[in-house]
Amino acid sequence: MKKFILLFSAVMTFSMCQAAQKIVTVNIEKLFNSYYKTSQVENIIKKQAQVYQDYLNKKLESVKAIDKKFRVQLDKAQNVTISSADRSAAAKEAEKLSNEIRVIRKEMEVYSNEKRKEMGNMTMRKRQELMQEITACVRKTAEGLGADFVFDVSGRTAHQIPAVIYAKPSTDITNQVLQILNKGNVPEKRK
């Protein structure tokens, strides 16, 4: 088995030496951040998040209003200057309001968790869609240039060092790909 691996390595090394390989580089991070669709998607996601937050804010205002009523009823229930029947009625009303607050807060918690998860899934799905478009454009551009390999210079290794330590600037096709991606469009400013 060792002989096979050595032979295979020798053949691969020899064949790589025989044919000059054309290598190009690209900065995927720059492409993603400068792609006009990225800012559009981010703005849609922010608007959706704001809709969810506005709903929660309305519910919170409702809780605050009910809490004020609860405190008034609680004070009445503890006020010895009013009749026992009135205190008892106020205590029941305070309990009812307290339960209403608990129900609304639980609804808010469930809603918030659901929407946070939805937003995370939507963000991931949209990011993947954009990355598919970007990588397809990179692939097509590289093929058009006759490239054998494309390396992403924005990537980092597990040790947080650049995956590509050096590449000639002439191998970088980032701006070329960016022009194709943004053809006829101007990226919106990111908010």
CATH class: Alpha Beta
Shape, principal axes of CA atoms: rod-shaped
Beta content: under 5%
Low-confidence stretches: none
Q: Which H/E pattern describes the elements? A: HEHHHEH
What is the fold named in CATH at topology level? Protein Binding, DinI Protein, Chain A
Give the beta-strand count.
2
Multimeric status of the protein:
single chain
* Largest sheet data: 2 strands, parallel
What radius of gyration results from the CA coordinates?
31 Å
Number of domains: 1
Q: Biggest sheet: strands side by side, in what order?
A: 1-2
| Rounded mean pLDDT score | 89
Structural class: mainly alpha
CATH superfamily (homologous) name: Skp domain
Helix content percent band: over 70%
Question: Roughly how many Å apart are the termini?
Answer: 58 Å
Number of helices: 5
In the CATH hierarchy, what is the architecture at level 2? 2-Layer Sandwich
Task: Please characterize this protein's 3D structure.
By secondary structure, this protein is mainly alpha-helical. The protein has a single domain (16-181), classed as Skp domain (Protein Binding, DinI Protein, Chain A, 2-Layer Sandwich). Helices cover 71% and strands 4% of the residues. It is built from five helices and two strands. It has helices at residues 2-18, 28-34, 36-77, 84-144, 174-181, and strands at residues 23-26, 149-152. The chain has a two-stranded parallel sheet with strand order 1-2. The longest helix is centred in the middle third of the chain and has 61 residues, at 84-144. It is rod-shaped. The model has no long low-confidence stretch (mean pLDDT 89).
